[in-house]
Specification:
This protein has a domain at 1-74. It has ten helices and no strands. It has helices at residues 2-18, 22-34, 41-54, 57-69, 77-87, 91-99, 108-120, 124-136, 143-156, 159-170. The radius of gyration is 18 Å and the shape is elongated. It starts with a helix and ends with a helix. Pfam families: PPR_2.
Length: 171
Amino acid sequence: MKERYIVSWNTVVSALVQNELDNEALMLVYEMKKLWVAIDDITITILLSAASNIRDREIGKQTHAYLLRHNIQFEGMESYLIVMYAKSNMIREERAIFQSNFTYDKDQVTWNAMIAGNTQNGLIEQSFVVFKEMLEQNVKPNAVTLASILPSCSQSGSIAIGKQLHCFAIR
């Protein structure tokens, strides 16, 4: 019964975030805590999404601290944290998560989050550096990777790199 209870809470909180009612979702999680409802990894991902959407640095950092204090790790956690820090323009923290010990086996999603975060924050050179590192680590770029790196080409005015990426995408 306890499991169904948290699923119900998470469903409502997630629906609020999906409907761009992020502040309401955060308030509902606060109510969950007041009622001693256990927060799980699903709740955490929803919290990180809400914090990202409203670019709330404090809630994002508090959620990250909660993860660390409770030694919570789950698949995709690094990507959620990278996106949250990137959207909050907390570049140092974003990079620290990307380079941290628990991201030793970075997947496409993690690489894409880092490239997109750099691009969104105008760190064009860094986007290209991360893309190059991704290739050097033999991680194959996908459509999301290309969609994340292409804006860097236009922002840098580098038609040559844009053409190379276009050729890469066609192959």
